[in-house]
Structure formats: C-alpha cells, structure tokens
Amino acid sequence: AIKQNAKQRTQRSSHERKSRTMFSRKRNVVDILESMGPNTSGTDAKNILVRVDFNVPMNDDLEITDDSRIRGALPTLQAILESSHNAVVMSHMGRPKLVQKGEDEGGKQRAKLTLSNVVDRLQTLAKAPVAFVNECQGDKVTSAVAGLDKKGGQILLLENLRFTKQEEKNDPDFAKGLAGLADAYINDAFGTCHRAHASVSGVPSFMDAKLCGVGKLVQSELNYLDFTQLGEKDVVAAIIGGSKVSTKLPVIKGLLNSVDTLVLGGGLAFTFIKAMGVNVGSSLLEESMIDTARELIEEAKKNGKKLVVPVDAVCSASFPSGPMDIKDTKTFDIAPG
C-alpha cells in the first residue's frame, strides 16, 4: 500500500500521465479496445478473456461477506461492455485440493468453492446479464462462448480454474485452450500477477501480443508503484506484509530504494524483529533470512530510511480460526505505551 500526503495527491494526475508513458509497454484494456474498435454495427462483438480475482470470502451459508474484489474488476468489465463486446471472465477461488484429487466426498468442497456462488452478486454490481458455465475447459465452454450475443454486452463466467490441476501447473494445452476462447486477453487479477499459472502467464503466449494487456485495476496499481520512482515526492511510505522474507526480498529491496518509510507487517516482520535481537518465541520465522534482514536494517539506517516493525502483538499458543464472541470473553484497555 502506498500513502501520499495531501501535496502529493494534488500531483497525482500529472504523475499518472507520466506513469502511463513509463509503463507504455503494459498495454491496458483501453488500448486493446481502441485497437479493436467499437462494435458499432451491433453484429461483430469480440470476446475478451479477462482474468480477475473473485476469490471472495464467504460465510457458512455461502453468502459473500466482502465483495470488494468483484467491485475492483467492474471498471474493466464495464469498459468492455460499453464497447459492445463480451467478457469471458475467469478466476480461481480458494485451494480446492480435494476436488483436484477426486477426493471431494459429497461434493462439499466443490459446492463451497464454485464460482456460481458469485454470479448473482456480479450480475447485480455489473448491471449486465451474467451466464455461468460449470466447467473451465472443454466442449461445454466452447459452446457457451460461441453462444454469446454478437451484439455484445454479455458476461460469461467460467468455473473455478483451480478445479483442474492444469491451472497451477501452467499446463500449455490448458492455456492454449483458454486462449482459443477469445480474441483478446486482459489480466486484471493484481493479487495473482506473480503466479506462474496457465491463466496468468500461459494464455498470453498463445495470443497476439498486441491484443494482450492489463485491466484498469492492475494499471492503477502500476501507477501507484511507478509513483515511487518519479522522484517528485515529499514523503512516501510503503506497507508490505506476507509470511516469508525470501519471497518478498526483491520487493523489499526495491522499496527501500524508493520510499522514505517502509512498514513491515505479517509473518515476515518477525524475522526482522529477531534480527533486532528481540525474542519472538515460536512465531513464524525464517532463520535462514535473519542475516539478510539484519543487513537490510543496517542499509536502511545508512541511507536515512525508516524501517518500521510492530512494537506489540497479540500472543497465543495457537492461531484462532476466527474472532471470539465478546459475550464469552472479557475486554480490557489497550496495552500501555
């Protein structure tokens, strides 16, 4: 997350213009739609494959408790629909290992992680008809895509990509099959851009590079990241979390070169706290990265950068599965200091 002060926010529009130039190699949905042209005849709608992140939380009644990820994809989907083209939407949800292994007794995991659970909410938010196909590959999917209206303005949602092992294995045949469903490809799943999965890194290799790009959500994140590189700033702070220092190391190093303050949270913070000489007990820790963390701390000090780690925490012998009901517990004042 990147935070800017009021002065920086007034500079945002000019920065966005510059970032568009700097990231011109990242074609976005607007560029793709412009190159394809609008469906003015009403008989030549193109099908655009859109990778989104609809991995939304749900309660035990399979009701969505937070639809922010669906809302995040709306600007991209609406741009496609307003150009009278169709969006073939694909996403993952959860980690359906039992489904992949064929060990899902009674179909309980499938019922919990099927993307059919998001159809109603997507249709309500997008204000457009949403069709759903309970597979993500094969004849049924091909037929569903072929049946999309040539007038455009429709959304077709495919089943959970991770119901098949081929997605996470970046299987080339699976990626080629997905690519064959559409005329263009848009990646608007910022949270999964780092995944070497078929729908993320595989599909573009089977499509015309000029018709592959990022969605508005991903473009906005690129703009924010580029903002830290421009040098026109007063104070910029970045917040980064996660469990492992090793997987975030390039990002941490890059941010330390670009921001004034770097705030560390999540499990990776404990490795830095340990490197500072503080006992972290049995908390999540990467012993092999302690020396690296210590070097980063020294580097930050040397360059006048502020590296912030948590100063207190909730301690427990186990990780609770959810919040406790206040009627069964006591509450106390916040910790001193």
Please outline what is shown here:
The chain has 337 residues and is an alpha/beta fold.
Which terms would index this structure?
disordered N terminus, transferase, four-stranded mixed β-sheet, six-stranded parallel β-sheet, 337 residues, magnesium, 15 helices, 38% helix, Rossmann fold, Phosphoglycerate_kinase_N, ATP binding, 11% strand, 10 strands
Number of strands: 10
CATH class of the largest domain reads Alpha Beta
Sketch the major β-sheet.
6 strands, parallel
What's the overall geometry? Answer: globular
* First-to-last CA distance: 26 Å
Can you give the helix content as a percent range?
Answer: 25-40%
CATH superfamily annotation of the largest domain: Phosphoglycerate kinase, N-terminal domain
Q: How many distinct helices?
A: 15
Average pLDDT over all residues: 86
Low-confidence runs of at least 5 consecutive residues: 1-25
Could you please say which CATH topology of the largest domain applies here?
A: Rossmann fold
Organism: Craspedostauros australis
Binding site for (2R)-3-phosphoglycerate: 69, 162, 195
EC number: 2.7.2.3
Catalytic activity: (2R)-3-phosphoglycerate + ATP = (2R)-3-phospho-glyceroyl phosphate + ADP
Structural write-up:
It catalyses: (2R)-3-phosphoglycerate + ATP = (2R)-3-phospho-glyceroyl phosphate + ADP. Substrate binds at residues 53-55, 92-95. By secondary structure, this protein is of the alpha/beta class. The protein folds into two domains: 29-214, Phosphoglycerate kinase, N-terminal domain (Rossmann fold, 3-Layer(aba) Sandwich), CATH 3.40.50.1260; 236-337, Rossmann fold (3-Layer(aba) Sandwich). It has 15 helices and ten strands. It has helices spanning 6-10, 12-22, 29-36, 68-82, 97-101, 108-113, 119-126, 139-146, 165-168, 172-179, 198-202, 216-227, 245-256, 268-275, 290-302; strands spanning 2-3, 47-51, 86-90, 130-133, 155-158, 184-187, 212-214, 237-240, 261-264, 306-308. It has a six-stranded parallel β-sheet, with helices on both faces. Helix 4 links the parallel strand 2 and strand 3. Helix 2 (12-22) packs across helix 12, helix 4 (68-82) packs across helix 7 and helix 14 (268-275) crosses helix 15 (290-302). The radius of gyration is 23 Å and the shape is globular. The two termini are 26 Å apart. The model is unreliable at 1-25 (pLDDT under 50).
